[in-house]
Amino acid sequence: MRIRFDWFTPNTVKKFLLVISISLLPGAGCSLQETKATDSAQQQNQTVGWIEKGKIAGVEKEVKVKLDTGATTTSINADILEQPGKETESGGMIKFRFSDGDGVKQTFELPIVRWVRIESRQSDYIRRPVVRMKLCVAGQWIEEEVNLADRDDFNYPVLIGRNMLEKGKLVVDSSQTFTKDPSCPAQEAQQ
């Protein structure tokens, strides 16, 4: 049996390869787009340790912060100095003093955004005031809700919860500590 190759001319081969190349391009483009999207998403997230140094807008020195994916809302150590007579959902000013146990102290007076209900082991629940504050973590200022708590008995005066982790696109590596520079641009703290 003899096979004919007379249709197999250089012109025919070029056309055949051109058709195959064009048909493969859409698939190659989709693959490239998926890779770019994945790379972009990975670049947005920043991995940090479970303990980092950070700053609070209005406080000159750095403080140690614990990054906790189990906490819904960020919490800072606060000694309440003055609060509204009635625990309304929002409104009213609250005056409190932040301290880290190592001599860093700062007094704040901020509007109450809302009250949060925290389950407690000793009693049914505790109501804590929530304010908006700006904290510097991993080189970026993040403004978000912070509940005020007595954290004197805890190792870290600031607990960064999921609200700030998500807003700052921070991913916690529980095997690492002090991985990022806490420096943030000074002008952003004032805004």
TrEMBL record:
<feature type="domain" description="Retropepsin-like aspartic endopeptidase">
    <location>
        <begin position="48"/>
        <end position="181"/>
    </location>
</feature>
<keyword id="KW-0645">Protease</keyword>
<keyword id="KW-0378">Hydrolase</keyword>
<dbReference type="InterPro" id="IPR021109">
    <property type="entry name" value="Peptidase_aspartic_dom_sf"/>
</dbReference>
<dbReference type="InterPro" id="IPR008503">
    <property type="entry name" value="Asp_endopeptidase"/>
</dbReference>
<dbReference type="Pfam" id="PF05618">
    <property type="entry name" value="Zn_protease"/>
</dbReference>
<protein>
    <submittedName>
        <fullName>ATP-dependent zinc protease</fullName>
    </submittedName>
</protein>
<dbReference type="GO" id="GO:0008233">
    <property type="term" value="F:peptidase activity"/>
</dbReference>
<dbReference type="GO" id="GO:0006508">
    <property type="term" value="P:proteolysis"/>
</dbReference>
